[in-house]
Amino acid sequence: MGKRLYSGVLFHFKCGLFNIKALHSNLNDVHHHLETSKPALFFLAEPQISTPSDVLYLMYPGYSLEYKSHSGDSETDRLLRCVQKGLDEILQQLPSVEVLILGDFNAHHMEWLGSARTDYTGRAVRDFAAAYDLTQLVDGQTRVPDIEGHTPGLLDLMLTSLPDGIRVSCHACLGTSDHLLIRSEVSVTHARSSRPPGKRRVWHYGSADWDGLREFYASFPWKQLSFSSGDPDVCAASIAEAILLGMHGFIPNSAVRVGGRSHPWFENIQLAKELGKLNMRVSVKHIDGHLLGLEKTLVQWHVPVGVLLDGSCINIRAVLDSASREMLFDSTHMWVIVDPMTYKCENENTRMKFVDGVFQNLNLSVDADIAVVAFCGDHYKLTDVFNFGKIQGNHLEKTPLGEWSRDTGLNISAEGFKYYHRWDFHNLTLRAVTVVAEGGAEFDPAMLEEVRYTPGIAAMTKVGAQMLISLMQHHNFRFNYTSVGRWLESPRRNSTLAVTNTLYWREQDIACTCLRLYPERLDWVDPFLPQLTYLETKVYYLIPDKGVGNYENRFLTPLSAGVWWSTCVVGLLCIVVLTGAATIEGRPNPGIYALCSVVAAACQQAYEDGIQLMSKSISTQGRRATLLVVGLTSLVLYTFYTSSVVSWLLNAVPPNIASLDGLIQSDLELVFEDVGYTRSWLFSPGIYYYSGYKNRKEDELREKKVTNSKRTVPLLQSPIDGVELIRTGAYAYHSEPYTASQVLSVRLSARELCDLGTLQVMPPSHVYIVGQKRSPYKQFFSWSLMRMSERGHASAIRARLRGAASACSGTVPRALALGQAAPAFALLAEASLFALLLLAFEILWHKFRR
Fold first, then answer.
1. Which of 434, 357, 342 is nearest to 396 (CA)?
2. Of the candidates 402, 637, 704, 822, which lies 20 to 30 Å from 496 by C-alpha distance?
3. pTM of this structure
4. Residue 87 falls in which region: left (phi positive, over 0), alpha (psi -120 to 50) or beta
């Protein structure tokens, strides 16, 4: 309760405090006291009632009833925090107000209250009174024991900031209560507060870190400090400074204006206006009250947010603890925290101890952007505060950031990007997860640095690991490896361990491998840009050299359709001319003769009908010229056609399988390398696709070549076994080029390499190193990987691990692609059969004619 006191005005009123112990049974005594004493205010403790529906019977003329129920919550800390919060709000609005707090605190303190013992409540109430400079006015016992075992005690207290203006007296109990009635008379003439305008520091003991404060005081060199000078005043000042240092570090506090009028929002409004002129959006959050909505005010992951925090605010430690829990000390939140204390310029250790006390237990990491600003006489000093990894056990890092003064402005000493000044990670241990395929060798970190093929280790794993190992050597950190069998798995608990879910559960810090990303996976992990390499897969098989097959047919393509039609027209004209010539010569059946002669000449053969002409018969030159033209034309066409077909048979591309349709229609049995993404493709139909999008051909391939296929060997094969199956010519093996090239070049002969065919299944897809969602190391690794890529490190590592296909040496001649000329051979076979049938018919014809 409090009043603003104005100059020359006399305030005189009475108030009473009484622990009634059941208001219902003592209501008449209370009304009698109000009638006879007429106090301005009367406070009752422990009425032992809940809010009644009808309160008219409790009313008394001239008084209004205000009832507050605590629902049985009498915990000391919560009670004092509630009182402290209300008092702070009053002091913020009315800085020069005088305070009177009264009630049954049930506190016991031997020195302060003369109790037989000291309990936690007694210490807490005394600390609260000392923090707000309040005096306890009740002198003497206020409880008269009426039950055996109870002892007299001072339990009902009056705490005030105006002890000279209040007179307190104790009177007999009312009704059946065992507590004395306490009366107080406030009678004072007050000419405004005589306190000079300024600030009063308020300590919030309810939110203090008492364990940290005890540890700080226990480790402080008190002996050296106590005898640091022969002047007792100097030693006392040093001890007081050390005590205040610990209090500032471990007890939240705030500076409250006293004297004059208070404008708590004026400076914030002015600051917001100035920042608005710079096109900066400003949001002001008042944190001296509750902290509801603090996370919503600060949360922003895509645009950097600057946070200016006044170190003198009441709840600064609660704000910092909340930001630590919500992981807001990251690269997207730039914090500027103003130290409320003033330091001597040379007192660097004292300033650093304040930083230690505030930030030592917060969850900071290497990406933290925190600048602590401290006033040192005529200028401000800025300190950069971060930690390479609090959860990994590293210590707080503090480096000078620069200075600011009105005369010289801002001078930043730590120029350049922050990681140039955070280069050495002091042997920090990061948890790294990598992938070793099932059936691979037992994991050894040295396997990741090998250039040669290692069973179970994918090429993209080696590329990512070797990039990270290079960074590890430059920045002095190390990895604690965990190997899993798959890249992708559901983040649901009890799922098979994989790269994605171990990062999602924050069991690992970074993936020492690479991962192909899709939009849904960005909810689980964060990629570290830029992309380092790419992932692709192919199907390997031996080109079939038997059977017709469903391949390219170029038997008729050497001559265009126009040439063929022109040849037919010319042939018909020649037949007409020869028919006329044969008629003139008197040959029997001139039409048949003409047709057979043209066909024979076209086939570079002569034709005679067996008719002996008379010597006097006419032999036309037209017939001879026509036959010559037919023969020469046929010779030219035959020569061109033959050379074209032979050239195509010698130089044509082998009959590769050019698409998934060709693979589906082939007789090859499909087997796969046992890797995580293949298992996802096999066992997650309709979800995972090699092409990266929903592909009906892949669904058809899975259905016909995997699900409904009659298998002679297991579906998943090791690279060595897969190559041996390829050599049989009856199998196609799915693998990535790096793995296949390392095995194929060793196990296939020169002829088999020349007969080796490939079909691209997964097109080259970019893959990324990934980390935890909102990882504190994302900015560092992205920056470092970009630097290494610009300097050519990534290209060099990719070149060492490139899976180039083994080329045909040329020492073994390649077989002709005669399978593609199957229609020609089929036509030849049909013509030969037709000739045999004609021969048989002629033989039978002549036999029966005889």
1. 357
2. 704
3. 0.58
4. alpha
